[in-house]
Amino acid sequence: MTITRTAAVLTAALAVAGGLTAGVAGASAAACKLTAGTPFHHSGNVKANVSTSGCSTAITYTAKLQWRNMTGLNWTNLDSGTWRGNESQTLLFDCKAGEKETYRAVVDGSNGTEKYSAEKTFTCGQ
């Protein structure tokens, strides 16, 4: 009877420990924050600030500054950056004066996470 009771207590303890480990892993994954700032126009350039914080160095992050192509259905990459862990970058595109386009930024993680900015339309040089 003592062996059975000890085994039951040990099994319960392992289940709790396993739950705690899973909770810690889930908490660290939830702590990772991807930021894709809305593109803005500055001095003849389109820029977007992107970043990650609280993120694992085991994950590769790729950020892209994009514009909607002429068909209006797809997005074309204008600038990009890649890193692991935590980093901030400013993506940049030198636009032509008078060019009116819709832009966005996106940050993708190799683990399937992603964050899109709001879309912004403006005319360069104005």
What does this structure look like?
The chain has 126 residues and is α+β, with helices and mostly antiparallel strands. It is built from one helix and nine strands, in the order αβββββββββ. A hairpin with a 4-residue loop joins β7 and β8 (114-116). Mean pLDDT is 83; it is low at 1-17 and 19-28.
Topology:
Blueprint: H1 2-31, E1 33-36, E2 40-42, E3 45-53, E4 60-68, E5 75-84, E6 87-94, E7 100-109, E8 114-116, E9 120-123
Pick out the low-confidence regions: 1-17, 19-28
* Mass-distribution shape: elongated
**Could you report the average pLDDT, rounded to the nearest whole number?**
83
Alpha plus pi helix count? 1
Overall SS class: alpha+beta
Distance between the termini: 84 Å
Helix content: 10-25%
Radius of gyration: 23 Å
User: What is the number of beta strands?
Assistant: 9
Keyword list:
24% helix; 126 residues; four-stranded antiparallel β-sheet; 1 helix; alpha+beta
Summarize the structure.
The protein is an alpha+beta fold. The protein has 1 helix and 9 strands; from the N terminus they run αβββββββββ.
